[in-house]
Write a structure and sequence with these properties.
Blueprint: E1 6-12, H1 16-27, E2 31-37, H2 41-49, E3 55-57, H3 60-64, E4 69-72, H4 79-86, E5 95-98, H5 104-114, E6 125-127, E7 148-151, H6 159-171, E8 175-178, H7 181-207, H8 212-217, H9 221-227, H10 234-243, H11 245-267, H12 271-287, H13 289-292, E9 305-309, E10 317-320, H14 326-338, E11 339-340, E12 342-346, H15 352-363, E13 367-372, E14 375-379, E15 393-394, H16 399-410, E16 416-419, H17 430-438, E17 442-445, E18 454-457, E19 466-468, H18 474-484, E20 490-494, H19 502-509, E21 515-517, E22 520-524, E23 529-530, E24 533-535, H20 540-551, E25 557-564, H21 571-578, E26 582-591, E27 594-602, H22 624-633, E28 635-640, H23 653-663, E29 668-671, E30 674-680, E31 693-696, H24 701-710, E32 718-721, H25 733-740, E33 744-748
Helix pairs in contact: 4-5, 7-11, 12-15, 14-15, 14-19, 16-18, 17-18, 20-22, 20-24, 22-23, 22-24
The protein binds NADP nicotinamide-adenine-dinucleotide phosphate.
């Protein structure tokens, strides 16, 4: 058996937090011995009876003797006295940590005892977790699970000590973050201390009214929610407010200013500005919802949602409107923001990716109303009206936002930094940074291997260039063209294969001239965009899952309404037709510069395997995961080549799909730029193709939705883990697929 992490752990203070950590240490077998010292003998006796400690001491000196980990889990104000008492009795390499809610004063207390040179094992910490009750009986082994723990290593802290504490808290299933002491106190002042102060204050304000009884009796849910935290321990908050005085006063000042602003807007009945403020706040809350959620969404090993699909009634029927096109939704906000005048958008995709773009422009001072039922109104600020964002621009999971904005931000007068979630942080950004640098942009990809964060120094002197795109990427093309709007002279791009031309079409719809001559696209810098109305077509990439679902299911009949059939996106239609699908494109029309149509697809004949045409690859790039499911159900072999791009999407889609297909009993071979899939279909037979099994989606929405469709031809249950990202592009996916006949259930892990 491996050695426990610690030999002897001493807790000084053993209430809610201390005893919870002690319970983790026991459960995970992290120490040979746990002892404690508390104020009262009763706590020590109780802790012994509960089996949490082997020995308890009234004198902390006795507890810390020979301990290699000392945890101060008592009120912060007692820190200095305890450190003075134990100072000369601890092992030279003992790790000393604490759990206090403020950090500046803990470090001050340590300096008061030790002088300038603190012990190398001293690493302050703060678990962001609590409960209504305190004391040794209130502790729980899972108190910290899925919560954050902040460590604030000091310049004197030894890396091995920090490393061991990280392992300790990770064993408690917490997410460990390291930051410096000042940052901790400032962040907590805003996110925890100010809200508590406001809650106490509001309850006090209402309690002082003469009619307070009535007010509390009739209090609405809003009051209950808002004031819940005012039931916390007054002594603790008293201590925290004094301990973090400077940062809290700053936060209170900010609050007062904001309050004065909203007061003024109400007093002067400034409807537009009030709507702008409320809408901005609401969107910010929604956008950061997943960050505020207790469980981090995108991190590996922290899967929060899964789909379970049972083999079930084999029918797939109905007429559906899938959500708006993601690419068009992104661009409607970007171009509306830099246009002159107002832009109205309908059919906007209210998924997290497009909302990330919307939030970014709000952060740059653009007043945007909505989205409400897919409608958004953008009050454009013109080509030179964007303002410096106050902080980093968070792009969530959206590669489109980050690459297109790289172009736009490179040409602004202000500096900016773009960050993203775990998945976006692994995606290549040098491919856009490189051509932008040739235009004079000062842009850095500060992650490892040319990945985010992307850091940009504002520069208003970009030069137009000609760029031969080494890869067929609409995002890189668009990023360059967007920088070109502000650049001197002509900016042009030649693409190896035609890619999505939504940027070109929409720029034209906004009155900006863009030339397309064969594979060469060009525009002149220095023009302007004029606000317009944009109807976002339904997303063919979302429709593709239903198209495949219908094509592989006997007797199915599905119509997808008002789907965008921009010729740069219709590869999936062409490929499914070549595979023999019974598919018709009906009622073709134009909306907002983009061609749309209803697509009807029936399950009337078995698909056949094909060598997928390489010229269709860029036109179906996002649809391959779904097409692989179709290929598995087809008769004969399907070969895909020329699709290396798939390896750098939200996940390595070739490998991840191959892994999943193999689990479900499909013979396939991934190659450098594609895959070979041995279809199991037989002409005229509609039985099960897949075995079922557990699929890891790698937080890739399209992987998750593709394997869901395999549920229409499975003999066993399919479990797909990590499906929360489906909301980024298709928030109504499970609802619509269930309506169509798929036996799908969503559960939180
Ligand atoms: P708790 O349940 O009240 O436990 C406090 C412990 O400290 C008790 O064992 C108490 O001894 C001991 N203690 C109190 N004053 C002492 C003194 N002067 N000398 C020696 N021991 C003393 O409190 P807690 O919730 O665990 O909080 C402990 C620390 O965690 C605090 O610094 C707090 O800021 C921090 N924290 C709390 C929360 C939360 O939500 N509760 C969250 C994050 C961090 P007796 O048992 O003998 O009274």
């Amino acid at each position: 058996m491996s050695q426990p992490l610690f030999n002897k752990v001493a807790f000084i203070g053993l209430g809610l937090i201390g005893s919870s950590l002690a319970r983790v240490i026991i459960a995970e077998n992290l120490a040979k011995q746990i002892v404690a010292s508390t104020r009262s003998v009763k706590t020590l006796e109780d802790a012994k009876a509960l089996g949490i400690i082997s020995e308890g001491y009234s004198n902390p000196v006795d507890a810390v003797k020979d301990s290699d980990l000392i945890v101060l889990a008592l009120p912060v104000r007692a820190t200095q006295k305890i450190l003075e008492t134990i100072q000369h009795h601890i092992l030279p390499n003992a790790i000393i940590t604490d759990v206090g809610s403020t950090k500046g004063n803990v470090v001050e207390a340590a300096h008061a005892v030790y002088g300038a040179e603190l012990p190398i094992g001293f690493v302050p910490g703060h678990p962001i977790a609590g409960a209504e009750h305190t004391g040794v009986h209130a502790g729980k082994v899972d108190l910290f699970a899925n919560h954050k723990v902040i460590l604030t290593p000091l310049p004197t802290s030894a890396p091995w000590a920090v490393e061991k504490l990280i392992r300790l808290w990770q064993a408690a299933k917490a997410e460990v973050i390291c930051m410096d002491v000042e940052k901790h106190d400032e962040v907590l002042a805003h996110t925890s201390h100010l809200p508590h102060l406001m809650a106490f204050n509001l309850v006090e304000q209402l309690a002082n009214r003469e009619d307070n009884l009535d007010i509390f009796r009739y209090a609405a849910g809003g009051f209950r929610d808002f004031s819940r935290i005012a039931a916390s321990d007054p002594q603790m908050w008293h201590d925290i407010f004094f301990a973090n005085k400077k940062a809290i006063l700053n936060a209170v000042d900010g609050f007062e200013q904001q309050l004065a602003q909203i007061r003024h807007l109400i007093e002067t009945e400034d409807s537009n500005a009030l709507m702008g403020l409320l809408g901005h706040a609401q969107a910010a809350r929604q956008h950061f919802n997943h960050m505020l959620a207790k469980k981090p969404l995108m991190e590996k090993n922290n899967v929060t949602q899964q789909f379970t699909i049972q083999p079930g009634p084999k029918s797939f029927q109905g007429k559906f409107s899938v959500p708006g096109d993601k690419s068009v939704s992104h661009r409607s906000i970007m171009f509306g923001a830099i246009a002159e005048g107002t832009t109205h958008v309908t059919g906007f995709l209210e998924g997290e990716d497009a909302l990330a773009t919307l939030q970014a422009f709000r952060d740059m001072g653009v007043n945007i109303e909505g989205p409400k039922n897919g409608e958004v109104t953008i009050h454009g600020v013109g080509m030179h009206g964007l303002k410096a964002p106050k902080g980093e621009l968070y792009m969530g999971n959206s590669g489109t936002s980050m690459r297109l904005l790289s172009g736009m931000l490179s040409a602004q007068k202000f500096d900016s930094v773009m960050t993203g979630d775990a998945s976006l942080s692994k995606r290549p950004m040098e491919r856009i940074a490189k051509p932008l640098r040739q235009m004079g942009a000062q842009i850095q990809t500060t992650g490892e291997r040319g990945t985010p964060p992307v850091s940009i120094t504002g520069n208003q002197n970009l030069q137009g260039i000609h760029y031969d795109l080494p890869m067929a990427s609409a995002q890189v093309k668009s990023g360059i063209l967007l920088a070109g709007l502000w650049a001197q002279g002509e900016t042009s791009v030649t693409e190896p294969e035609p890619t999505r031309d939504h940027s070109e079409r929409m720029l034209r719809a906004f009155g900006y001239e863009v030339k397309t001559e064969g594979n060469r696209i060009s525009l002149q810098g220095g023009g302007k965009l004029v606000g317009t109305n944009i109807q976002v077509p339904s997303d063919i990439s979302s429709a593709a899952f239903f198209m495949v679902g219908a094509a592989i299911t006997e007797g199915s009949d599905v119509t997808l309404e008002a789907v965008g059939i921009n010729p740069t996106r219709t590869g999936v239609i062409e490929i499914l037709k070549q595979m023999g699908a019974d598919l018709s494109v009906e009622n073709e029309r134009i909306a907002g510069g983009e061609p749309i149509a209803d697509i009807r697809i029936k399950g009337s004949r078995t698909l056949k395997g094909i060598h997928m045409p390489e010229d269709q690859v860029p036109l179906a790039i996002d649809e391959f995961p779904a097409l692989f499911i179709a290929a598995a159900c087809a008769e004969g072999q399907t070969i895909l080549t020329g699709a290396a791009e798939l390896r750098v999407k939200e996940s390595d889609r070739i490998q991840v799909m191959a892994d999943g297909l193999k689990i479900m009993g499909i013979d396939c071979t991934p190659t450098d730029d594609g895959i070979i899939i041995e279809g199991k279909g037989k002409s005229g037979e509609w039985g099960a193709i897949f075995n079922g099994g557990e699929i890891e989606s790698h937080h890739d929405h399209r992987i998750a939705m593709s394997f869901s469709m395999a549920g229409l031809r499975t003999s066993g249950e399919i479990k797909i883990v990590g499906t929360e990202t489906v909301a980024t592009s298709f928030p109504t996916f499970t609802q619509l697929s269930e309506q169509a006949g798929l036996n799908i259930q969503v559960s939180e892990a």
